[in-house]
């Protein structure tokens, strides 16, 4: 499990939004198929990451929450696609997010100076 807490940028609709991100990664275990010979489930794992982002303004948070395609870029240059989930508080510019695939940060990353 990794963690990222620091500056990041959200890219969507040709715009770049500066945010503060609090993200965690984990591995999700899923049943992929059932073994046809003994009926036992066969498992697989896939990386997942979730967290929150704090936008500079409520208007920025609103714009990001309405976008179809969102990408976050961390200070180290990692990028990942994500969606805005339920929760958060648009009035205070906070969005809860869930990412796709490998996280855009390394395990146990501590952000450096910007």
Name a few traits of the molecule:
114 residues, mainly beta, 6-stranded antiparallel β-barrel, 6 strands, elongated, disordered C terminus
Topology:
Blueprint: E1 3-12, E2 15-34, E3 41-55, H1 58-66, E4 70-74, E5 79-84, E6 94-99
Antiparallel strand pairs: 1-2, 1-4, 2-3, 3-6, 4-5, 5-6
Report on the architecture of this protein.
- The protein contains 1 helix and 6 strands; from the N terminus they run E-E-E-H-E-E-E.
- It is elongated, with a radius of gyration of 16 Å.
- With 114 residues, the chain is mainly beta.
- A 6-stranded antiparallel barrel has the order 1-2-3-6-5-4.
Strand order of the largest sheet: 1-2-3-6-5-4
Task: Please state roughly what percent of the residues sit in beta strands, choosing from under 5%, 5-15%, 15-25%, 25-35%, 35-45% or over 45%.
Answer: over 45%
Structural class: mainly beta
Helix content: under 10%
Please, what is the average pLDDT? 87
């Amino acid at each position: 499990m990794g963690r990222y807490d620091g500056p990041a940028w959200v890219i969507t609709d040709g715009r770049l939004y500066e945010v503060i991100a609090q993200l965690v990664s984990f591995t999700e275990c899923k049943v992929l198929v059932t073994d046809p010979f003994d009926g036992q489930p066969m498992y697989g794992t896939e990386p997942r990451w979730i967290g929150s982002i704090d936008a500079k303004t409520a208007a920025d948070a609103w714009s990001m929450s309405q976008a179809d395609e969102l990408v976050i870029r961390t200070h180290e240059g990692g990028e990942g696609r994500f969606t805005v989930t339920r929760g958060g508080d648009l009035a205070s510019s906070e969005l809860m997010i869930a990412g796709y695939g490998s996280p855009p940060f390394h395990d146990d990353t501590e952000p450096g100076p910007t």
